[in-house]
Amino acid sequence: MITSNLIKNLSKEKGKSVEDLARRIGYTPKNLNKNLKRETVSTKELMLIANEIDVVFEQSHILGKW
């Protein structure tokens, strides 16, 4: 699932709109929606969002060969 859709679905399940979520993490709804649409949500933003909607954020890494 695309990150933006996952965030929107989880927010909805928790009874929070993306607009409310944006304000709670210190962003304008316009900026958060822009980042979600472009799939440019930073790790920091993902951690803040996860905290607000009470889910666990785990970051995975893809490592190349040396």
From TrEMBL:
SUPFAM superfamilies: lambda repressor-like DNA-binding domains. Residues 7-62 form the HTH cro/C1-type domain. GO terms for molecular function: DNA binding. It holds the Pfam family HTH_26. This is Helix-turn-helix domain-containing protein.
